[in-house]
Amino acid sequence: MTRSCESHLGKIFHSPISQYANMVALTLAGNTGTLCVATNQMNPATESNTTNMKPGRNDPCSCGSNKKYKHCCEGKVASRSPDPSPDEINQLVALYNSRHYGELESRMQVLLGRYPDFGFGWKLLGAAQQMQGKNALAAFQKTAQLMPEDAEAFFNLGVVQRSLGLLDEAIASYRRAVQIKPGFVHAHFNLGTTMMDLGQLENAADSYRRVITLKPDSIEAYSNLGNILRKLDQLDAALASHQRALEINPDSAKILCNLGIVLKDLGQIDRAKDCYQRAMKISPDSADAHSLMGILLKDIGQIEKAVASYRRALEINPDNDETYGYLLYALNYSARYSPAYCLEEAQLYGRLLSSKVSSPFTAWHCEAAPDRLRIGLVSGDFCNHPVGFFLESLLAHLDPERVELFAYPTAPITDALTTRIKPYFAAWNPLFNIDDDTAARQIHIDGIHILVDLSGHNRHNRLPIFARKPSPVEVSWLGYFATTGVAEIDYLIADKTGVPEAHRKNFTEIIWYLPDTRLCFSPPEFDLEVAPLPAKENGYITFGCFQNMSKVEKSVLSAWSEILKELPGAKLRWQCSQFTAPAVIIQLTKRLQQHGIDPKRVELHGSVAREVYLAAYAEVDIILDTFPYPGGTTTCEALWMGVPTLTLAGDALLSRQGASLLTAAGLEDWIVTSEKRYVDKAVALSNNLDKLAALRAGLREQVRSSPLFDAPRFARHFEDALWGMWHERDKQE
Predict the structure, then answer these.
(1) Distance CA 71, CA 51 (A)
(2) Which residues contact 247 (CB under 8 A, 6 or more apart)?
(3) pLDDT score of 197
(4) What is the pLDDT of residues 679-711, one digit of tens each?
(5) Which residues contact 597 (CB under 8 A, 6 or more apart)?
(6) What's the pLDDT at 16?
(7) CA distances from 138 to 25, 89, 145, 161 (A)
(8) Can you say how many angstroms the Cα of residue 433 is from the centroid of all Cα atoms in its chain?
(9) I need a surface site. Which of 221, 454, 663, 689 has the fewest CB within 10 A?
(10) Is the distance from CB of 621 to CB of 692 less than 8 angstroms?
(11) Which residues contact 428 (CB under 8 A, 6 or more apart)?
(12) Could you give the count of Cα atoms lying within 13 Å of 91 in the half-sphere of its Cβ?
């Protein structure tokens, strides 16, 4: 069971394939025929406007004003000026068809001065503006007002509204379009896409199902429906949807990638790998396929192959900062890459981000001498996730007289923990449906003093926002464990065990030290007692590991092998999410045998609910930490359940994370600095069961009163750090 922040989700293909997102539909009933344009080179909608029913006088006006028709557009319709002649209209259509959009716009401005109630003229004006990349909102709003029963008028309005980030308004426009014309496939599709943007997944799925009913060969609808069903954790249904898309187009690299993502989630690793390989064969320059292969290889512990896949993806698309983030994340799993090397790579990433920002903020709206600081927290993990587990108790103890909190969720994930922490925030402003520039402007408008990134290069991160510098002070904390490489981020919060003074050079950020620990854990909400030491009853030691395969390198297996040789009766209980896949079990069994470990001495368990996972610590005497990527959340949970962790401290913030946590918990004697001492210490600790049992019996109370679980103490230190950063800025100003 994975309980650390390392899960990197491949979101390359999770944004909808917006087949019709930029389409402008132009239809004119009459002798001028039908005129359409699709700016995405897709088949355009050619439906004619055959519905001309007028609303009842007491009906809601179809222009969207929320007024009755008789109090709104009825009088406007009655007093409208005549339309231009057919010859004039044909000339305008000819300009559009010949792509003379600038001339058409100029002509329409003049013509609409003479015929201000000519609805199709406003539609033409909006189309001409849209094709030139201009804001066509006003023109299409006027079209919808003058043509309240024209489905395409509302479709076009929805397209513009969505492009401007007016997602609720776009949904209303698309709904009106399908109300007028229930069979309007393109409107149903865009309605689903926009609902997906807003996280309205069930409603979006219904819209795509409607598209499939109307157009059974819609590859895009099947693909988007599959992506939504995956997010809803309906993996079998998602698999069926992507398989249907592949049946329609078996030579699509993108569909194969989407199918591979779901197969990987289902634990069918070999089939997922086959999909990515087929995608690469069809499209050798598919950066997405190589990147997704990297994610899969990283998750099953093949770090060097994963790094090679990410490198290949970046050769194909060197400007993809998301893939670069995957690479940086993967480097943390291997001792092969020195802190200096990782720093250099992170700096290259940071320069890539900065190169994409034309005008970062240099002045801010926040109050210069505040009584309390406005603190923005940016994360996709305000939920039952390691970030949430460390954050919850801190939020409960921050002084609202000193800090005012603003949440910026980057993913539409909510659960019971989300509900519990929401009241601690003055505002909850989701960013998952907003581009980086718009998000940065929103944060800037909010007047945030200090913006805190809780993701680093983890999933759902929005580091490109930080490169735009929407707040005067920016901080990295909690969700990552190395430098981000983003020059605009001023500070990284750490403690002196995690980042000794000599290691500060390995960061682009200035290290800001907290007095005791950089992390404070929230006790689990479950009422579980600490169990007696199982070795007393079993007669042998049971070591435990709750880390995923990607953390268990050859050096870790070698150390475990030596420990088990020294303790012939000992066993290892290893639990992680990958152990639900038979192919993974077969591969791991071979790895164990290659390192001289009898697979019969290793119990493998798959992912379970958190309460069941915590109860499993009753079966474990000692946790053997992984290195150079140790546990974080699992270490704290183990301590709470009375089980100490033996950790090996390295030379980076991440590799010293276990040492930092155990120091805060008062267990410095469980920290070693070499693989030989790791083996020797494990053997020595196992040979003193009485001492282990006594430690276990009092460990929960020991850690409860330690800085690692003392949320009020940690909150004061955290507030002081934030204010200290702000005062440092004042000095620099």
Answers:
(1) 22
(2) none
(3) 87
(4) 999 999 999 999 999 999 999 999 999 999 999
(5) 557, 560, 561, 564, 572
(6) 31
(7) 16, 21, 11, 10
(8) 11
(9) 689
(10) yes
(11) 407, 409, 422
(12) 11
In one-letter notation, the amino acid at residue 438 is T
Residue 652 vs residues 5, 456, 624: alpha-carbon distances, Å: 17, 16, 19
Q: Going edge to edge, which strands form the sheet with 571-575? A: 602-605, 571-575, 542-545, 622-624, 645-648, 671-672
pLDDT of residue 13: 27
Contact 383, 413 (CB under 8 A): yes
String of DSSP letters for 118-159 = -HHHHHHHHHHHHHTT---HHHHHHHHHH-TT-HHHHHHHHH
Q: How many CB atoms lie within 10 A of CB 234?
A: 16
Q: What are phi and psi of 34, to 5 degrees?
A: -115, 130
Determine which helix (DSSP H) or strand (DSSP E) holds 408, and give its type and residue range: strand 403-409
At residue 67, the pLDDT reads 73
Predicted confidence at residue 19, as pLDDT, reads 42
Q: Of all helices (H) and strands (E), which one includes residue 657?
A: helix 657-664
Q: Cα dist. 647→70, 379, 598, 658, 697 in Å?
A: 76, 28, 23, 6, 21
Phi then psi for 360, rounded to 5 degrees?
Answer: -65, 155
The whole-angstrom separation of Cα 570 and Cα 544 is: 11
Q: Where are the beta strands (DSSP E) in 540-683?
A: 542-545, 571-575, 602-605, 622-624, 645-648, 671-672
Among the listed residues 469, 440, 375, the one whose alpha carbon sits nearest the alpha carbon of residue 165: 440
Burial class from Cβ neighbours inside 10 Å (0-12, 13-18, 19+) for residue 693 reads middle
| Residue 474, C-beta contacts closer than 8 angstroms, at least 6 positions apart | 450, 451, 452, 453, 466, 488, 489, 490, 491
> Which residues in the chain land under pLDDT 50?
1-22, 27-53
Structure tokens at 327: 């690479």
Peptide bond into 523 cis (omega under 30): no
Between CA 586 and CA 565 the distance in angstroms is 23
Short-list 236, 299, 242, 245, CA closest to 273: 299
For 676, residues 6+ apart whose C-beta sits below 8 A from its C-beta are none
Q: Which two tokens stand for residue 283?
A: 């499209």
Please identify which residue in the block is written with the tokens 């090679």.
308
Structure tokens at 122: 């406003």
CA atoms of 647 and 498, how far apart (whole Å):
13
Angle between helix 119-131 and helix 101-114 axes, rounded to 10 deg? 150
The string of pLDDT tens digits covering residues 320-345 is 999 999 999 999 999 999 999 999 99
Q: What is the structure's pLDDT at 73?
A: 64
HEC profile for 74-111? HHHHHCCCCCCCHHHHHHHHHHHHCCCHHHHHHHHHHH
CB-based contact 413:384 (threshold 8 Å): no
Give the position of tokens 């634990």.
267
* Sequence letter at residue 298: K
Q: Which residues contact 122 (CB under 8 A, 6 or more apart)?
A: 112, 139, 140, 142, 143, 146
The DSSP secondary structure of 253-320, one letter per residue, reads: HHHHHHHHHHHHHTT-HHHHHHHHHHHHHH-TT-HHHHHHHHHHHHHTT-HHHHHHHHHHHHHH-TT-
pLDDT, residue 583, reads: 83
Rounded to 10 degrees, the C-alpha dihedral 320/5/407/323 comes to 0
Amino acid at 495: D
